[in-house]
Amino acid sequence: MQLKVSTGMSGFDETIDSLRLGDNVVWQVDNMESYQGIITPFVHKALEDNRKIVYVRFGQHKKLVEENDQIIVYEVDAKKGFESFATEIHRLIEKEGNRTFYVFDSLTDLLTNWYSDLMIGNFFKVCCPYLYELETVAYFAINRNVHTYSTIARIRETTQVLLDLYEVENKRYIHPLKVWQRYSPTMFFPHLIEGNKAKSITASSEASSLFANVNLVEERMDYWDVIFAEAKSALRESEEKQESIKQLLMSLLIGEKSRMYDLCNKYFTLEDILRIASREVGTGFIGGKSVGMLLARKILRSDKQNRFNNYIEAHDSFYIGSDIFYTYIVQNGWWKLRVKQKTKTGYYQYAKELKDKIRTGKFPANIKEQFVQVLEYFGQSPIIVRSSSLLEDNFGNAFAGKYDSVFCVNQGTPEERYEQLEDAIRTVYASTMNEDALEYRMNRGLFEKDEQMAILIQRVSGDHYADNFFPHVAGVGNSSNLYVWDKNVDMDAGMIRLVFGLGTRAVDRTVDDYAKIVTLDQPTRKPLMHMEDQKKFSQHGVDVLSIAENKLTSVKLDTAIANVWDVERNLFASIDTETSFRLKELGYRNMPTPYILDFKNLLKHSKFPEIIKEMLAEISRVYDYPVDVEFTANFRSKDDFKINIVQCRPLQTKGLGKSVEIPTISEDDSCFIQTNGNFMGGNIRLPIDYVIYVDMDNYLNLNEQDKYSVARIIGKITRELKDKNIFLVGPGRWGTSTPSLGVPVHFSEIQHVNAICEIASQARGFMPELSYGSHFFQDIVESDIFYAAVFDGEDNVRFEPNYVTNKENMLRNWVSNTEFWSDTIHVSESDMELLSDIVNQKLLCK
């Protein structure tokens, strides 16, 4: 039997059969004075019984506990947000240990900082069970008639003791509403407290007289909704009043003061903010991706020359507030695991367990109903559920590709479509525990920061073409062209990475296809790679949403483009006359017309390149920083089109650096690498400590499993040499998911290197992909990694692997079966320098 504990009021102890160790006691009060009158006898009795007393101070009301050397006081800052606040209190409870007695300030005061009843319920739900587990006794207060029914219900469900405290005509009454595992015939009557005595109000006449003077419990909106409802009326107020309210609402939706906040403040009106809020599910921030998208669109809409309004596709996105992420974790009982994972020792240790749990949790009924309404709004239109974390798409931290986005083709019964949506949301939430995301946060000193996950739900841009859904074109645009392979390229004109169909092929480095790289100062400039075979090194597959199969898939270009009915196909592709003639010769009559995807007419004869160039330039001008934009475009004719800006973020980049003089070497002088162009990362003079070289021929001869092993070995080596200058050189594409195209390293395995080089061999099928604009590109630029591609055998290119392989192979330091791997992987110490001059487009490693 649990030990009995006194409230300090002996008569009331008799009424409720005392408190018990483990009890959380919640008092519903009208004011703090009456709550303090209850706290005082509790504290005095606890001190008399030599109990450890802790006062947790966070409210803005006056202090409830008098200063006393025997009482431990913690001041906890609620302004830091739910996660920091709840974690700090969790850790102080852990520190103070078993059988400690607590007094907490009024939970209602948390509304001053959080503006959300939902989050107060979440806090109590994570705090109360831990206090119970440690056999503490804790007093809490909430103000009557302030919180929603659902918040009170969650508190009632979680706490052991719930009491109403009334002051009527200078008399104090306590009305027990819940007393766990205790019962008496008079326990749940109201009780008049007079000193140490408690008189049960059992007579109907006395009870009705008492309650006639008490405010009835009223249903309330969540405080969040109250604030935004009141803000609507401010649209009729003075500009000064509107500005004050706008600042408050922006702090709730956008986040704390930052460079992005300042830009939003400049461009968003109060009406804009209210419109955003009207499309939010739940409460909390809308996240970086949503903010970036909305800001870019507003900048273009606000253009004084009105250059873009006719070309911008409308959007009708929804935003799942960041508080829902926490609610999901709390409601499913994973908060303690979340706190353990947020420590340095548990950061990686508990990530997989937490990720697996997040993939299988359940959402509260009221949140599910809001999800249903969003789905009903979109009907059967395909949608995409995208991560929009607090730190995403900000200056300095793009998190490009670190979190998941999930297409919902949105076909089937309402129940099936709902399950697809809910599963997509779980997938995005679980991606906060992705290995690459964890590494990214750790390496940038962000692992202790709140990384709440909001979600952006967008209607997919495009149309139905037979059984598939896709936009005509999609891609990534950069306002500053860092990949300058020709001294005549205007860096400030920008660049786009263009694909036919869904934009997944523009941001991922996973397929044996080549996006179209377009320099916007001269869109028809020849491709970066000096190749004769135009068709071979163009896009052959198209990513689409299959309506019939209800999934994201790929189809052949000829099949996709054959079904495009609403615009001339030659805007995007030219008929492959050679293949067409050969098919006819061979007797194939019913094959789709073969095309080469060259975008020739789109780039030469339409306004599209000029409009996208001006859009990028305008957003960059406002940001006062280069930008990276994801877009789609749909056409009715070459000059009648709509561009949809689906994402915008600062382009993580550095300047050109000081000019570097490249020494001239004769043909008789040996070197490792010498090339003209095909590099990015500015001017550098980099001393090389170690070279890791993967031999092309020996790598080709490995089976697929061994090729993956090569990637893991390289990851191990680079981690151990992370404090050295490393030059990584190998065949084809670093970071591909297809081992036949290059070494399939994860970016986290090569993030510590200083320079990478991709060696081309057209004969062996290894071709670097100048992946400007992809997530891989974003990673190497953010990590300040220099990039080069070497087209061995071309004019003005020298590649002499013997310059490195003649040195001792140090691979034995990292692998046991050195003999098997040493022909493929060569690791050597180096005294070389890597030099590049971007103006003259020269690179030398010697």
Automatic annotation (TrEMBL):
According to its UniProt record, this protein's enzyme class is transferase
Q: InterPro entries, from UniProt?
A: ATP_grasp_subdomain_1, PEP_synth, PPDK_AMP/ATP-bd
Which Pfam families does the entry mention?
Answer: PPDK_N
Listed EC numbers: 2.7.9.2
Keywords of the record, alphabetical order, are:
ATP-binding, Kinase, Magnesium, Metal-binding, Nucleotide-binding, Transferase
Enumerate the spans annotated as Pyruvate phosphate dikinase AMP/ATP-binding domain. Answer: 286-665
Give the cofactors, semicolon-separated. Mg(2+)
The UniProt function text for this chain reads:
Catalyzes the phosphorylation of pyruvate to phosphoenolpyruvate.
Protein name, per record: Phosphoenolpyruvate synthase
What are the leading ranks of the lineage?
Bacteria, Bacillati, Bacillota, Bacilli, Bacillales
